[in-house]
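Review form for a predicted model. The reviewer records the input and the model, then writes brief findings.
Reviewer: anonymous (R2)
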Amino acid sequence: MRHLVDQDARLAALIAYVGIVEVPLRGEYFPSLVRAVVGQQLSVHVADCIYRRLEAQIALTPEALRAASDQTLRACGLSAAKMVYVRDLAEKVALGDLVLDRLAGLPDEQVTKQLMAVKGIGTWTAAIFLIFSLGRLDVMATTDGGLRRAVHWLYAHGSDDSGQVPDWTEMGRRWRPYRTVASLYLWEIINQNLVARPREAVLPTLEESNP
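Model under review:
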């Protein structure tokens, strides 16, 4: 937090407003990956609802997912594509093609490479796993819609969608090696629905001239 405060005045103002953010890690890797796949391109609320239904209907193990019927998975809210994805994940884990317990010992790039061998897992899902399961400190899910909305709210100059924000490369350079921590604070803008309020009302001490 001290590093981010020193490097970025806008993020410093947000950190002061939000305070400490505590995020418990999802220690069970297989359910965590299923949850991440379920959450692709969905709001947090919708994704949580679908995941809770799935969790209530079947045990979240590779064997149970391989055996689950289309009807059961569809009733939980999974699309046809996501049924394919979670089954491919279950298959690869069950057959030993993906050994989840080994991922914690690998660098971020290798974790991402191994996860992306599963159908439907891309950089976003891999980033979510790195952050919320492995607790890696320097990860940024640049394709995340909520993160992009939060960045626009905090950094845009101007009140409409044409407002300009710094590019991801510049922000990433500024936040390294704690891009995960920066992301967690930016997600709080969405979690607390700050995007529904004018930035100057939430962060009145923010110097608008500071990029």
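Findings: The CA atoms of residues 157 and 209 lie 9 Å apart.
Further findings: Residues 2-22+141-202 form a domain with the Endonuclease Iii, domain 2 fold (CATH 1.10.1670.40).
Recommendation: see findings above.
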